[in-house]
């Protein structure tokens, strides 16, 4: 679906990344002077296994148009299996996104190692292009309402 009226649209992307692999890979991208889109704001975690996926909903509720979750490759996790836990959570989280009516193309799940600066740049550029095509995410209220109900249940 092309949004020609969004030609000036610059998506806001939040990246939740592992400290040991993806964050180091993103750092390598910069130190290698590899050009990539500047639309991404990085939130660093010790491990993707520590990411509570309600944070992803909060990112949407706070104005993100897209999200990247990225960590160590399988069997390279510094915490043994955190990336596998994150991957299993992602599979469950996808059904919640469908329930909320959030297009799953707005969230990218990837593995990027500390040595893959070019892969990080490609991931960011591809994600930004995909979100530009999808257009701005305007369903903030729906996500905020859902989060408000969850908070009220506690």
UniProtKB/TrEMBL annotation:
Positions of the F420-non-reducing hydrogenase iron-sulfur subunit D domain: 13-135
> Which InterPro entries is this protein grouped with?
MvhD/FlpD
List UniProt keywords, sorted A-Z. Iron, Iron-sulfur, Metal-binding, Oxidoreductase
Q: Which organism is it from?
A: Marseilla massiliensis
Q: What is this protein called?
A: Hydrogenase iron-sulfur subunit
Q: What is the top-level taxon of the source organism?
A: Bacteria
Name the Gene Ontology molecular function terms of this record.
iron-sulfur cluster binding; metal ion binding; oxidoreductase activity
> Tell me, what's a Pfam family for it?
FlpD
């Amino acid at each position: 679906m092309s949004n020609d009226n969004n030609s000036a649209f610059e998506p806001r992307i939040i990246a939740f990344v592992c400290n040991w692999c993806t964050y180091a890979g993103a750092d390598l991208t910069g130190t290698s002077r590899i050009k990539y889109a500047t639309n991404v704001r990085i939130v660093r975690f010790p491990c993707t296994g520590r990411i509570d996926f309600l944070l992803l909903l909060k990112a949407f509720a706070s104005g993100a148009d897209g999200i990247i979750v990225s960590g160590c490759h399988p069997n390279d996790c510094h915490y043994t299996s955190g990336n596998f836990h994150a991957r299993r959570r992602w599979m469950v989280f996808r059904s919640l996104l469908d329930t909320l009516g959030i297009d799953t193309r707005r969230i990218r799940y990837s593995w990027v190692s500390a040595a893959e600066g070019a892969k990080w740049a490609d991931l960011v550029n591809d994600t930004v292009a995909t979100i530009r095509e999808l257009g701005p995410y305007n369903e903030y209220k729906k996500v905020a309402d859902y989060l408000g109900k969850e908070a009220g249940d506690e």
